[in-house]
Amino acid sequence: MDVLDRIKEQVEGNAVVIYMKGTPQFPMCGFSSRAAEALASTGVEFGFINVIQDPEIFENLPRYADWPTFPQIYVGGELIGGCDITVELAQNGELQKMMEEAVAKAKATE
């Protein structure tokens, strides 16, 4: 399977997914750490892809949504952005609502 098809499958197969360096439990950069903490603070389940363990995704994800940096957070199949945007959305309460809506929509289509 082509790497861009794999990324598309991951984005569409998870209501919320973060492409990050490391894991939420063991982040490997400060930006990934802060973004994962913001997602976790909502109490809503989310998926993650460790781009360090998958060099093909690391090299090609910036092409997928034309976003050059990591982490990248997708909610409901749409890129919401990176660390700063995610933290800001968490602080103003929008992130939780977005994530809950994406999870509800995904469950409704199962």
Blueprint (SSEs and pairs):
Layout: H1 3-13, E1 16-20, H2 30-40, E2 47-50, H3 55-65, E3 72-75, E4 78-81, H4 83-91, H5 94-108
Parallel strand pairs: 1-2
Antiparallel strand pairs: 1-3, 3-4
Helix pairs in contact: 1-3, 2-4
How would you describe what is shown here?
The protein has 110 residues and is an alpha+beta fold. It has one domain: 3-Layer(aba) Sandwich (Glutaredoxin), CATH 3.40.30.10. It is 52% helix and 15% strand. It is built from 5 helices and 4 strands, in the order αβαβαββαα. Strands 2-1-3-4 form a 4-stranded mixed β-sheet. α2 (30-40) links the parallel β1 (16-20) and β2. The chain is globular and about 35 Å long.
Concise description?
This protein is α+β, with helices and mostly antiparallel strands and 110 residues long. It has five helices and four strands.
